Amino acid sequence: METLIVHPENQEQSDALKAFMKAFKISFEEEKDEYDPAFVDMVLKGEEEIKAGKGIKVDTGNLWK
Fold first, then answer.
1. InterPro entries, per this entry (predicted)?
2. Coil, helix or strand at residue 42
3. Alpha-carbon distance 17 to 6, whole Å?
4. Measured in whole angstroms, how far is the alpha carbon of residue 55 from the centre of its chain?
5. In this structure, are residues 37 and 45 in contact, taking their beta carbons and an 8 Å threshold?
6. Can you tell me the distance from the alpha carbon of 20 to that of 26, in angstroms, rounded to the nearest whole number?
7. Within 13 A of 65's CA, how many CA atoms are on the CB side?
8. What pLDDT shows up at residue 50?
9. Is 17 in contact with 6 (CB distance < 8 Å)?
């Protein structure tokens, strides 16, 4: 058979998918996110700021002088 990987966007979707799979006796495994949600939010916010032109460009050639 095949393996499906799903990416629910919120807890409500996750709960619904689990209930559906249990009702149809489909076996599944759960994996928790490896990263702290606060850290993920910080990184995503930083990426948005860079896209908005709020980032600072650093010339790495001048870091050790």
1. Uncharacterised_MJ1172
2. helix
3. 9
4. 22
5. no
6. 8
7. 4
8. 92
9. yes
Can you read off the two tokens belonging to residue 64? 């050790």
**Exposure letters 20-30 (e unless 16+ CB within 10 A, then b):** eeeeeeeeeee
Domain ranges, ordered by start, for the chain: 11-55
Task: Extract the residue ranges of the chain whose pLDDT is less than 70.
Answer: 65
The predicted structure's pLDDT at residue 65: 60
Please state the φ and ψ torsions of residue 13, each to the nearest 5 degrees: -65, -40
Phi, psi of 26 (to 5 degrees): -95, 125
**Looking at the whole model, is its pTM more than 0.85?**
no
